[in-house]
Amino acid sequence: MRTLLLFFLFLSQSLSAEIYLSVTGAGVRRAKLGIGEVKPLGSSSPSEGLAAKIRTLLQSDLEFMNLFEFIPESASSSIDKESLEEMDYTKWSNIGTSFVIRLGFRSTSDRLTLEASFYDIPGQKRIFSQTYQSQPDNLVRLVHELSESILKALTGEQGLFKSRILMVCHDLNRKRSPAKDVFIVNADGSNLLRLTDDKTLSTSPSWMNDGTHITYTQFEFLISRGLRKRGAVLKKHNLSSGARSVLYFKDGMNSGATWSPNGNRGIATMSFTGRPELYFISPAGGSEPEPLSRAFQLKTLSQGTPQTVNPALLFDVEAHWSPTGKEMVFKTYRDWE
Fold first, then answer.
1. Can you tell me the distance from the alpha carbon of 178 to that of 18, in angstroms, rounded to the nearest whole number?
2. Does residue 301 carry a pLDDT above 60?
3. Among the residues of 87-198, which ranges form H helices?
4. Which pLDDT score is estimated for 83?
5. Nearest Cα to 247, choosing from 227, 266, 275, 225?
6. Rounded distance, CA 181 to CA 219, Å?
7. How far is CA 37 from the centre of its chain?
8. Taken in order 93, 94, 98, 101, is the CA torsion positive or negative?
9. To 5 degrees, how large is the angle CA 53–CA 56–CA 57?
10. 48 close to 55: Cβ distance less than 8 angstroms
């Protein structure tokens, strides 16, 4: 997978701390927004195809927010005749516009530049002006960055346009023992990419905190204690290079890895003792897993004192960290003594 190169060059005006739109409940009143003509910059040769694609991608993102009513493109184009350095608030105000985004682009063989200025029309001020750069084939991500800036400036909230989703899929046409593979996709459903294609079961994908690696469990044949056996292997996958490595291959389960916010350690379900229980694991693999769930002190709602944990009765799976990294939740099925 190619590495994303994306840079913010400068902010000619900082993103405002003022909240323009409050997103509460389902009754949000949509603001009228105009997207100006997407203009080529400097020596960049005019490209109607690229300009139209930038506009389409941006409007698709903004429609996803469900915060805007769009000024028709014909009306916006007839008004937006000034250079990017000029702004006629009166013309936009006369057609009831609340906000305007104006765009310019420059495309070369190795770099795509997008300049954007966002305006508050009733307040007659520029909310922000920002320049973005990326590789030419990263246009979608570049526009997602701009959409994030708009949402943050208006609501103070972080969006999901730069997010990606990990999921497991299988071929519905295969009825008998279909392989399951890990896929990654943008939050808007674009850029679907298969990460595994090994004709086996790949399950429980999880992000590592650096955003460039994931882990998942895959069923395959490996050598354990001198014997070739098929088992559940916990793997680490580099999204940039595609390189994979085995983190843990203990007898039984090696599943459900989840990683702490600081990335120092993970928690996985393993069953090499005979019962599924939770262990601390290293992001580099190799080290011996540290027992976790057998050290818990538990009590029911009717008990005032913690109950002794019998490791022979454990059945603990699917751990998840809290955002602080100080707490966790997990599923358990225990035979209480």
1. 52
2. no
3. 89-94, 139-155
4. 72
5. 266
6. 11
7. 30
8. negative
9. 85
10. no
